[in-house]
Amino acid sequence: MTKQAPARTSRGHARRLANRVIDIGLAFGGITCLAFVALPVFFLFLSWHWVLGGPLVIVYGYILYSCLADFKKRPLSFREGLVAAGWAICLGLAVFATLSYMLVHAGFAVYSGSAKSSYWRLLWYYVWLLLDLLPVVEATKSLKLEPPLQPEGVVAGLPIVIFKGFVVFVMLRILKEWWQARSTASPATDDA
């Protein structure tokens, strides 16, 4: 009888590990779906008129809000927190890049550094901003990444200032609170 207990335990660990891998794969598959399915549909709407993209920004913003609210609703495990943080970061980048693209497309904002400020260049610019904002890491300096665009004027700079405030005062604070709450929880209850 004692020989069966380790087999069950190892099967249980293998099953939990497989479930974790599947969960993380599905989460990142969803993020990939957002990037390669939802965003092209968005661009189709934007190509007709920039105002049609407004409702999608609102929908993406609401999904972003619900991802962030998950951190406050209940204690999240490491896996759940990682997935929610990944979704929140991707959606935050998409919302602000979309807002900037709508302003460029409408003719209200101008960015230098590229002949045409495409959505993908704006998205890369917001990724660069996110990397540049991470304290201590200094990823843009270490990787010698230059900003792909430069905002010109108040209208182009306003979404950038709001994005920086969002990352510093909302995202990093929520992730810090989640990590602290998670580290004070019992290690036996976490599935990390």
Task: Provide a concise account of the structure shown.
With about 190 residues, the chain is mainly alpha-helical. It contains six helices and two strands, in the order H-H-H-E-H-H-E-H.
Unreliable residue runs = none
In one word, what is the shape?
globular
Series of secondary-structure elements, N-terminal to C-terminal = HHHEHHEH
Number of strands: 2
Instruction: Calculate Rg over CA atoms.
Output: 20 Å
| N-end to C-end Cα span | 30 Å
- For the record, the count of structural domains works out to 1
- Biggest β-sheet description: 2 strands, antiparallel
If strands are numbered along the chain, what order do they take across the biggest sheet?
1-2
* Individual helix count: 6
- The percentage helix is over 70%
Strand content: under 5%
Structural class given helices, strands, pairing? mainly alpha
Q: Helices, strands, pairings?
A:
Blueprint: H1 4-48, H2 53-73, H3 78-106, E1 110-112, H4 119-133, H5 139-142, E2 150-152, H6 154-184
